[in-house]
Specification:
With about 325 residues, the protein is of the alpha/beta class. About 45% of the residues lie in helices and about 15% in strands. It has helices spanning about 5-15, 15-25, 30-45, 50-60, 75-90, 105-115, 135, 160-175, 190-205, 225-235, 245-255, 290-305, and strands spanning about 65-70, 95-100, 120-125, 140-145, 155-160, 180-185, 215, 240-245, 265-270, 285, 315, 320.
Length: about 325
Amino acid sequence: MAKVTIKELAKITGWSVATVSRALNDKPEIAQDKRNEIRKLAKELGYHPNQNARSIKLGKSKTIGVIVSSLTDIFSTNVISGIEEIALKNNLKVLLTGVDEDFQRERETIENYFGSQVDGLIIVPSTTPYDYTELLQGIPTVFVDRDPSGPKVKFNSVCFDNVDATKMVVNDMFKRGAQRIGLLNTCVSYSASLREQGYREALKEHRVEFSPSAVVFAWNNKKNVQQMTRQLVINQHCDGLLLADDSILVPALKKAKEYENENKLIFGVIDDCDWYDLLKAPVTSVKQPYYEIGVEAVKLLIELLKDEDRSIVSLRLKGELISRR
């Protein structure tokens, strides 16, 4: 017989996962009769608590587990720096694992961290939206960069404010003289949807009609970026190119050189690098607060370890506009 989970108990009883979890842990804020009813049903269905998860809740190891896509990319190294500084100040050890956007490796890593009895987790999720409730089994967790919350379930998260950042870049591109701005979007669904939202909102503020044909997507391997650049510049007559990922910028600039109007093209990109200052074509960008995301993630996790029943927190950190003329 398959193991009965808290999520299944919640579905059967009609109460939330949090209510069921608190009842099973005999929390006083749940009425005694409700606690008794839930615990009785759990016993009848053969529910057994995850002992690894319970050990994590006890907060004995003074260790937190961190899961990112890569341990070497700019985002991860800066976020990890912020995590480690605050963890060190609070006498917490940090376990780090890169999973290369592989959900199965992410799942296995979480289970391995159970064995290490970490007190809590900080995760860059590979799948969004996704209900992590059953997988985490009540372990205090903060998600960073992407929020896996959906309509029916919410999680603690610390992310970059993609919508606000995109609006800042588009507004600056209009100030620089762009008339028709095309969006070459990222293949990461979470970021892509929010950046398109910011793009649409900025167009609306400038009374510019949204055109679906002015939004294209880059493949994960970036091999179609030059083709999509041509699509926007030649077929859609865009004089402004908004690039939703810094890895798209170089191939887009290379393709733009083929056109006579390349010096008239106005570029904007989400994210910033120092070498943008050396480009012939000025690029408006937004610097993401990577380090601060790591800092805030650990601070929030520490608060969760102190009070696992606190309300869900969703922090969205603002970026810094870098306008080049």
